[in-house]
Description:
Elements: H1 2-10, H2 14-21, H3 33-41, E1 52-53, E2 58-59, H4 64-71, H5 76-86, H6 95-100, H7 107-118, H8 123-142, H9 148-160, H10 166-171, H11 179-190, H12 195-208, H13 215-227, H14 235-245, H15 251-284
Amino acid sequence: MRSFLAPVLAVGLIATVAIAADEPARHAASASTDEVAQEGAGQDGAGQPGARDEGAGSARPVDVADVVRRLKSRAGDVRLSAANQARDVADDAVTKPLVRLLIDKEFSVRAAAIRALANRSTERGRKDASRALAARLPRLAKAKFGEGELLLAIVALGELRQPNSVKSLLDGITDETSDEVFAARMAAVGGIPHPSAIEELIQFLSRSGRRWGGRRRVVTSALQAATGQRLGNDPDKWRAWWKENRKTFDFAAAVERRAAEDAERERRAEKKAEKKKGKRKRGSK
């Protein structure tokens, strides 16, 4: 369990993004590998918001109306390019057409739309994006072509951190839910800075009983990430603590703490990777 839980909880669900990145090649209804490659290329360089014009030395302005128009194009490659560009467009005008792309026939377009929605920056945009993605979870959970798109949507909801997604993230869990999806859902809820997230996790822990076995540790890990407390698997202890601390709990401080913990884990991981790389170099001499 810990092998995938640690990266999911530690670095903003990066592990689930990696899983989802491999998904397109695993089902016939998805985009081809060429389209996925094109999607990756479309996220950098010319034509993207913030891309540098080497001649002028400044960022090119973004024509929001043009992005919206291209999001509605009949051509899949045009929709894909626009969805990638919309990721860095703050204007709420792109939110609604991005939501429409969640049911696009091309996997690469849907995936780009999910990533763009996860990057909404205004309060209204984040709420609308979260509501739309949460509504898609039940259908994605039943999809026969794999879990990649579901994981991407869960990751996005975790990044949006909206209370309106808490119930949707927890309601879709069944005995058939994979370990990766279970951990991703829990981590996403644990990262939402709102009382409902903590309360629903405590309730879930209470309802899970023994039938979830080792998965109960995943729930408590999400509670620990949310609160900074280590109270084990006993829901009564969590209830008692929350009853005492609910009115004074500092969610802003909790967000800062998680960010600091994530940064420290990344630093340690990079240091470990550098150490291994150094050993390989010395061994090859």
